[in-house]
Amino acid sequence: MVFDKILIAYDGSHGAERALMKATELARLCAAQLVVLTVYRHHSMLEASLSMVRGSVEPGGNLDEAMRGTARDAADYAKSHASDAGVARVSAFIKAGQPARTIVAVAEEKGCDLIVVGSRGLGATEGYLLGSVSHKVTGLADCPVMVV
Amino acid sequence: MVFDKILIAYDGSHGAERALMKATELARLCAAQLVVLTVYRHHSMLEASLSMVRGSVEPGGNLDEAMRGTARDAADYAKSHASDAGVARVSAFIKAGQPARTIVAVAEEKGCDLIVVGSRGLGATEGYLLGSVSHKVTGLADCPVMVV
């Protein structure tokens, strides 16, 4: 088949939603396995910036928990969507880390042969100048990357 | 179908070769129309740099002719490959211009719903820093872009 195992990076954004639709259609057409991945930022990654504006350092447990919960909800939603649309084999994972590097690392670890990501939805100039997650993923990945 | 009209940007490079293989497989699977596009640089675009090293200005006709011929050969090769591989509807075009902008403009003009491009084959850092044609295309295109 053209693709056997497709990773869809899903964060609940508008761009990710469109990417999920395409990844689902493609997985069904290819009879491919679909791997949903939602990456979230771990508390310690926000600590540096937050500690600048917070008066005192509070325990990060609750924030971590909330971010993990939101990521879990997003991943579960994407998994349900794909299953309902007729993709037979779907799994969903969440992982804390830097988005682009984490997406590429998980795709390699799980042996995916296509990564599908949403575009930022920015205009051409802004997107190009800022450098989006999708640009970083296409730069880092060894397998084909579809930017939707 | 998932994709109805796929544009493959083919310039004869190693990356474009891999992209051609994937685009061909995908076009066959989707029963999609395949549009081969080879972009080449027009003589006038090289004039500024060449005139710096050339003693005298020579007519650009021959150089244009040679570049157009090479582009034609590349496009024809890609078209034959796709036809031989079982893609029923394939057309091939050559066009002078800036690669990324020309690829995106032709895709829009012809109503393509997927653009397939090769990655530069550079390491992650170099590719990311230099900014490749594939990065520019993903930044400019309104339709999904697959970087192979």
Automatic annotation (TrEMBL), chains A, B:
CDD domains from the UniProt entry: USP-like
A Pfam family the protein falls into: Usp
Domain UspA: 3-148
InterPro entries from the UniProt entry: Rossmann-like_a/b/a_fold, Universal_stress_UspA, UspA
Family as reported in the entry's similarity comment: Belongs to the universal stress protein A family.
Family matches, as PANTHER family: STRESS RESPONSE PROTEIN NHAX, UNIVERSAL STRESS PROTEIN UP12
Record-given protein name: Universal stress protein
Taxonomic placement: Bacteria, Pseudomonadati, Pseudomonadota, Alphaproteobacteria, Rhodobacterales
